[in-house]
Amino acid sequence: MFSLKPHQRVYGIFFVFALSMGALLSRLPDLQRSLNLTEGQLGLTLIAMSIGALCGLTFSSPLIEKYGARTTAFVTVFGASTMYAIVPWIPSAILLLPVFFIAGLFAGALEINVNLETDRHEAQLGTRIMSRAHGMWSLGFFVTAFISAGVRQAGVSVHMHTFIALVVVVIAGFFVFSKIENAPARADSHEGKMPLVAFPTIGLLPLCLIGAAPLLVEGAGIDWSAIYMRDVFDVAPFVGGLSITIFSLFMALARLFMDPVVERYSPRVVAGALLGIAAIGLVIVGFAPHPYVALFGFMLMGLGCSSVYPLAVSAAAQRTDRPASVNVASLGQMTFVVFFLGPPLLGFVAESFGIRMSYFVCVPLIIAALLVIRALSAKPTPLVTEPEPATPHG
Fold it and tell me: For domain 6-181+199-375, which CATH number applies: 1.20.1250.20, 3.40.109.10, 3.30.1490.20, 2.40.50.140?
């Protein structure tokens, strides 16, 4: 009988959540037109999701520790997916704000849950799987973006599209989440009392910057690429949707196969190379004279920002100054919020200076991350040398 291993069920959380979130984000051009919003106004509504994510990342750590991975997965994935399905039925941007806020709240808590569980499974397995786990997120985005490109071309309504995505997520979620078990904490983890609020420490700030840079690129690639292709080149919906599809595909492929590369060449070397590739992709998109040149740029962006954030998460989770869930939450505050807050700000840049400029403004953050890249380990060694026995825990 087919069954999933414990760490594969965590992969499933990433994948299933990406299906519903990707279905909504791939339809942002249609939502923008249906609500008659400018890029800046659309960006302003998305800020509510950023605020919700910040609240979820800041306050949810004690609840996640109390209720465990399984309950948290059900609540956060199904809760956020329900909010995404509601969005197309909202008649005005003002009424969208509380819906986006609640969706962000669930997403922030989910971010802590999946990264913490992935890190604990890494300790059990004795090998890196963080990049692979995030690869399942990107793979889910690729699947939903590819489907969305055809759905948009076929003229299927956003209402029907997001509702079907919700149904798929609920069915898949019950199969994946039903047997999730809490992985044991690392043997060297901090056993101190969980604080009510998670804030980053001075030592964690370089990792926050390294994690934030690729997430800004990811937000630019996912949220604005279809609108960029439409406004700059006036392409058909299917071609415009290929921007998200290609971005997500190469991000997924890189993440799924990057863990052995990291073990061989070190987190610092890999992250530095990938950030450089992302910067090149951003410049290509900014200057692209033809839609297919832009698609090549989106491919490099997806490849370049693929595994940098997972490497920052692993480094944060392995710090021993505080409980791992607190460090992961603190990193998430500075980085995951960028994923939500960055695209709205890029929308204001696009409205004021043109959508091409919104890609150029991502480059300085990439450079800043490269300047603090020494926060990542330079040792080309596996995660651990003696894996702990993978016994199940309740």
Answer: 1.20.1250.20
